[in-house]
Design goal:
By secondary structure, the protein is of the alpha+beta class. 38% of the residues lie in helices and 27% in strands. It has a single domain, classed as 3-Layer(aba) Sandwich (Aminopeptidase). Helix 1 crosses helix 3. This is GNAT family N-acetyltransferase. Keywords: Coiled coil, Transferase. Pfam families: Acetyltransf_1.
Length: 177
């Protein structure tokens, strides 16, 4: 079952999403150590208006266990949603780089390893796509250029690569559905 994330699930959900965000957690948090980065991102998760807020996160739950998480939001709001993160990074002379355009943006998605291969990721992506359609927008995402497994999944469910983007020294394919 897909449901909206709850504030009290911060550690579990952020730890799960961090697997998909990889080293992006360090750029978003301004921290170099994993545990510190997770703690900072958990603080943002518990707040109302930022990209990592529980308000922008949905979980796939089965038998009262979170098996997957999805972060998505209206890309037109990205600058506003990134303000709190940028305020945090200001003292480090760093800034969150904008990944999305004006589409509805699938920021991150992660499925617990033991739950992979069951179609959960596809179900969550379709859920995000329905959210995009409700806003009369395309759904977009970025995926690292080398991550062929993820790209194949996205292509299989209708995403097309529009262009490439370089963020934090990594090359990403910007895809839309």
């Amino acid at each position: 079952m897909i449901r909206k994330a709850k504030k009290e699930e911060a550690k579990e959900v952020i730890t799960l999403l961090a697997k998909a965000m990889d080293d992006m957690i360090y750029h978003l948090s301004g921290c170099n150590a994993y545990n510190e980065a997770i703690d900072v991102l958990c603080k943002f998760y518990k707040q109302e208006n930022n990209r990592l807020s529980y308000n922008n996160i949905y979980v796939y739950e089965q038998n009262q266990k979170i098996l997957a998480a999805l972060c998505c939001y209206d890309g037109a709001l990205a600058d506003e949603l990134d303000k709190p993160l940028n305020e945090n990074l200001n003292s480090l002379n760093k800034k969150v780089l904008k990944e999305c355009e004006n589409e509805f943006y699938l920021d991150s998605i992660s499925v617990e390893e033991k739950a992979r291969g069951r179609g959960i990721a596809k179900e969550l992506i379709e859920y995000a796509y329905k959210k995009a359609l409700e806003k009369n927008k395309k759904l977009s995402l970025i995926v690292e250029e080398y991550n062929q497994n993820a790209q194949n999944l996205y292509k299989k469910i209708g995403f097309k690569t529009i262009k490439t983007k370089t963020l934090y020294g990594h090359i990403y394919n910007y895809m839309e559905k």
